[in-house]
Write a structure and sequence with these properties.
Layout: E1 5-12, E2 16-22, E3 30-37, H1 40-53, E4 58-64, H2 71-78, E5 82-86, H3 102-115, H4 126-158, H5 174-177, H6 186-195, H7 199-202, H8 206-213
Parallel strand pairs: 1-4, 4-5
Antiparallel strand pairs: 1-2, 2-3
Length: 216
């Protein structure tokens, strides 16, 4: 005989998680379980409480994809619980449903999960997400460095220095580190040192960093 399932909806925030459970069956009760802090230990206690109140039932959990990403989904899978991370843009909405609270959102997710009307997003492995974060960090560093270079060139031009060379940003060029410019005001020298961010050093060897973190 198939195991009966309970459907748990979570409204997840940075500081808290609001939970609701829908009992199996079309007319099954949908109940508010309360709010807990965003903590894996507190979440496991909540799961234990639900299992104790409904012995012999399995659990299926869902929450909206958001800034907390996929850590919760991986933790649930470690506990042997199916977890769906829901695409917010694909959650069915009633045209007249304008009241929005954490409790109502959790109950709505539990109800829709029971009805099979939710569309999940792919949950990557932790290694894949780490590689993705590294690539994003490098892209952000490249953008920061590009903006800093433009600010520095504008600063030099504003102070009467126009670089004539072709290789603006090699280690040997004067513009990369201020060169031998003699400033009339000492603070100007500090400006050139502070304008280029530490990203230029982080970007020196990005390929080796990616190779180090690449999964086999």
């Amino acid at each position: 005989m198939n195991q009966k399932l309970l459907y748990v909806g979570l409204d997840v925030h940075k500081e808290s998680i609001v939970a609701a459970v829908a009992e199996p069956g079309r007319s099954g009760e949908v109940r508010h379980l309360g709010a807990i802090c965003y903590d894996y230990h507190a979440l496991e206690k909540l799961v234990g409480r639900v299992r104790k109140a409904h012995p012999g039932h399995g659990l299926e959990v869902c929450y909206e994809a958001g800034p907390c990403w996929f850590g919760l989904a991986r933790r649930f899978r470690q506990l042997g619980i199916d977890c769906t991370v829901v695409a917010p843009s694909l959650i069915p909405k009633k045209s007249g449903d304008r009241v929005k609270t954490d409790r109502r959102d959790a109950e709505k997710l539990a109800r829709l999960l029971r009805a099979g009307e939710l569309t999940g997003v792919h949950v990557p492995e932790a290694t894949d997400e780490a590689i993705r974060d590294l690539c994003r960090a490098r892209t952000d560093a490249v953008d920061d460095l590009k903006r800093s270079k433009q600010r520095l060139k504008s600063f030099l031009l504003r102070n009467g220095y126009r670089y004539q060379g072709k290789a603006n940003w090699t280690q040997g060029s004067g513009i990369f580190h201020g060169g031998n410019i003699r400033w009339n005001v000492a603070a100007c020298g500090g400006t050139t040192e502070q304008t280029l961010p530490p990203a230029r050093f982080w970007l020196n060897d990005p390929d080796n960093k990616r190779k180090t973190h690449r999964p086999d």
